[in-house]
User: Fold these one by one.
Assistant:
Number 1:
Amino acid sequence: MEENSREHLNTDNEAGGEDALVGNVNKLMVSPPGFTGLPRKGHLIFDACFESGNLGRVDYISEFEFDLFIRPDTCNPRFRVWFNFTVENVRETQRVIFNIVNFSKTKSLYRDGMSPVVKSTSRPKWQRLPAKNVYYYRCPDHRRNYVMSFAFCFDREDDVYQFAYCYPYTYSRLQHYLASLERRNLDYLQREQLGLSVQQRQLDLLTITNPAHLNQEREKRVVFLTARVHPGESPASFICQGVIDFLVSQHPIAQVLRDHVIFKIVPMLNPDGVYLGNYRCSLMGFDLNRHWQDPSPWAHPTLHAVKQLIVQMNQDPKVSLEFYIDVHAHSTMMNGFMYGNIFEEEERVQRQAIFPRLLCQNAADFSLSSTSFNRDVVKAGTGRRFLGGLLDDTSYCYTLEVSFYSYLTAGSTSPVPYTEDSYMKLGRNVARTFLDYYKLNNLIDESKLKGHINSTFEGTSSRHQGNNTGNGKNQVKGDRKFHGVRDY
């Protein structure tokens, strides 16, 4: 989420009273006070010592209830939102209430029906808990902090259960995905290492275009996209993958786009933060999306590398850097929407509004009414604001936000929870919208398009069809539900 929403932070209690929470729980067995002897079934074992894991402490309240503490971002106790942990050694039909007690934000989509996601070893597809099992409230027992409680019934003793704030998308998952793309040997896809993070993780840059465009002498029209500067905003990675999947596909629209545009994509700007299970910060506790003005090569190396590349491209007279889009997720709003900049020239203001309007026509989950343009001083260090001031008046810089929870379609009052697939669908629609923006529709062979249109994007002709990917009806065949998800 680009917006810092300072008023949403629990500034009275920056460390949440958990100054000592600097690491994740590691195979922690939580048994009744005073219990000695061998652990029994039902003495839950909690673990978050894995990639993108986050759980700092567990307090036993009763055999039915446990208080869970989010580990703050590394080197920055102000941010406590993302959680991702496993539970094992459960007893069949064991019913529990988990209270997550030290959120750093007050406002949350948990007030509007959002719920954590869960999977287990025998049911590896993530599912959302039913909203009726989730409660969000100020709690007098925790300094009037906001607490999110959820009820769950374990149903299989041999399963390991995993709970998370939202669908995780790890650094390793990205590396496997990019490796699989490379193995396809596509002549219009290049992958390069743009730099390394503080912990020496790879900063990947993808270039997707017709290879003829890479000729040094040719004019170059560039669209630049970045994601995961805030590591806990995992929906951004699904959107980014949706964009990539579409652009490297054989879809007729993708082929035309590759022939006319160079797409530069950095899928994970903060790989250390993602790996560590932080919500907003890097390893060293920096919110990288506040350091675009003067990133340090040693403290913010990934940001420094991306900024250098963009500045270099901007200085090349043969390069027209026409779009910069930074992808985020939002913790208090629904739908997809955009933030843009404010300009003095009315014509530039109008031109900047074109892309969001076109995207709204292509994606039923994109909200034009939530899209806004601003130049708040506190946002001066964001990619959108800094590059909006650096690049010339033919360039447009946006933050693309998507809800952690759900979207409302036109005329509907029932929110549809996002899934991994529907996040990726929004990414495909973002990519497809460049065809409309550049007015390349006349280059599309309509006969070839028919076989692709329904399976690949949510076009205007089908805005209200097939849009319930988040309601669980499209489960993989044989993918069984949790008893604990169905009811408590």
Number 2:
Amino acid sequence: MRLKPGALLRFYSLCGILMQVAATKNKVRGSQGQFPLTQNVTVVEGGTANLTCRVDQNDNTSLQWSNPAQQTLYFDDKKALRDNRIELVRASWHELSISVSDVSLSDEGQYTCSLFTMPVKTSKAFLTVLGVPEKPQITGFTSPVMEGERMQLTCKTSGSKPAADIRWFKNDKEVKDVKYLKEEDANRKTFTVSSTLDFLADRNDDGAVVSCRVDHESLNSTPQIAMQVLEIHYTPLVKIISSNSWPEEGQSIILTCESKGKPVPEPVLWTKDGGELPDPERMVVNGRVLSISFLNKTDNGTYRCEAKNPIGRNSTEYVLIVHDPNALAGQTGPDHALIGGIVAVVVFVTLCSIILLGRYLARHKGTYLTNEAKGAEDAPDADTAIINAEGSQVNAEEKKEYFI
């Protein structure tokens, strides 16, 4: 059968449409495995952010970067937005990378990479901009501070995002008991942070270095620090040091009055027993030192050293006792006297014992019967034995013995 020319044209047209549809379906089917890959980026304010979009497989399909306002930044290698901070890093069928320099807080947001397949496929990358805290400042310090007064030092920093952390140190030792306050800035993006250190001024804090340290992730482990050296004024602290722990007559002694205060105390005042020094010729004052030569018993007493400065005054005392060197040497005699006393007692006891023994022997001098006399075995002594023998035995006189 022979087709008419019109029918043949319609047939060829239908074949072309079918082939075009099949090609489109193949292209779509081949693009289904493609998907853009992106990563979130964090950058410090003022730095440079690099945005990269990659596709593993791509059949000449275009890539595009858009900002949070959905403005096109780059379409393949063609720049679409007039912003000198935005530059092309790399453009290929598999990658589209751009950079944003001098990043500001307003650049923060969600950026979109689009792959123009059917349908269009996208991937999101969130750009986080860190606000750098300003250099901290310490306020509230007035110099000088009197001992016992309350001090309130405040450390403050602005512009941090997120809010910075503040820590206090005194001579490199961290102080924990502090107050912390966080406030949102007018731009509603950054924060102002302040911290207050509250304590009573003490003389031990004079010259101490108080530091306020600001830690933040944008500082790359290098904190910002503000320092303040404390100046505390306090009344003098007085102490007397003696050069001789056992002063004797004829010797000399030096008494040194150590006084520490701020401001530096004026020259000290030496007194004895509440009055002036009685012998200026032997008692010489040179600054804070009192020298006494040729000591004697009249120098015994209470010596007072007084120091003062504009804050106040303070004093301390030293009791001087001058010893007799001869009496000190005689203190070794009691040992010999004690030994002599003990010997005398021993001799005395021995003599008494000899005398008592002699008297005992004298009282028992006389006669006694020998063992042959009757009753001698039962008698308690010689006289009783003789008496017993005389009463019961004739011729006892013949058996009586005498002894001296």
Number 3:
Amino acid sequence: MEHGNQSMVTEFVLLGLSQAREAQLFLFFLFLLFYSLILPGNILIIVTIQSDPRLSSPMYFFLANLAFLDICYCSVTPPKMLSDFFYNSNTISYRGCMAQLFFLHRLGGTEVFLLLGMAIDRYVAICHPLHYASLVSIPICGAMVVVFWCLGFVHSIIQVALIIPLPFCGPNKLDNFFCDITQIVKLACTNTYDLEFFMFINSGLSALISFTLLIISYVILLFKVRMGSTEGKSKAASTCITHIIIVVVMFGPAIFMYCRPFQDSPLDKLVAIFHSTVFPLLNPMIYTLRNKEIKHAMWRLLGKLEANYKSLERRSGCLKSICNDLC
């Protein structure tokens, strides 16, 4: 690429979490083990909700979408990170970097709107229980999810459209394991003050406002639940507390990363790895561990799978016996 008389950057160097080969291999096996344990759990949540008629309410529909979003979100940067650890590679092409940035913010933005939708669902369920079935149905929730994906796309495409025109003429080193706006913008060979301010509003301030609104809404719902009748009080309160935990886990690192000037911090890498790798996969697991209905549904599904497996084994044994008799 050429920009005037300057040679433009065609790839970026990711400094990663560590330059030591032993540390890279340790981190590779550590995160591979984490994914091997947690990723199937999130898939099990989706399969359980889809296969159990008792979990056909909008609340579980949103949870299945949250698990799907988090699986997609954790498929953007970790595969590249694991590959870099294993092969000791630390470069990413310009297009690959822009693609990472786009999908990170598209999925992250969609998840923010999804959490807002889950808050609306709980508000109607607690404050207007008699009208809940008519106001919040699966078709309505499906339409809301489509809108959330579209809004996430708009949020992300704005970020990418503003960064692509920037000239990158060197240096090309990113002090992280993936590409994000806080790192990319600082490498541009031009004054980016206005762009950084807009990014702060688009990502940081919007995340802070969404977080504040969600926390306030759930706190109000908790007070309303405490003041209401005893029937279903503990379940509604537990659901609200679970949502608060997920909101804090989701928004805490995002606010730290985007609600301050784009300057290096010793905690940047640690927060980034939890925000992009660990927490997203844990969100649905947190919800599941605090929800008895999903846990019971999982045990029922696993019981059915075990029964089917034993039945298949018996049939296989019978076929072998018949074959031996014929021979």
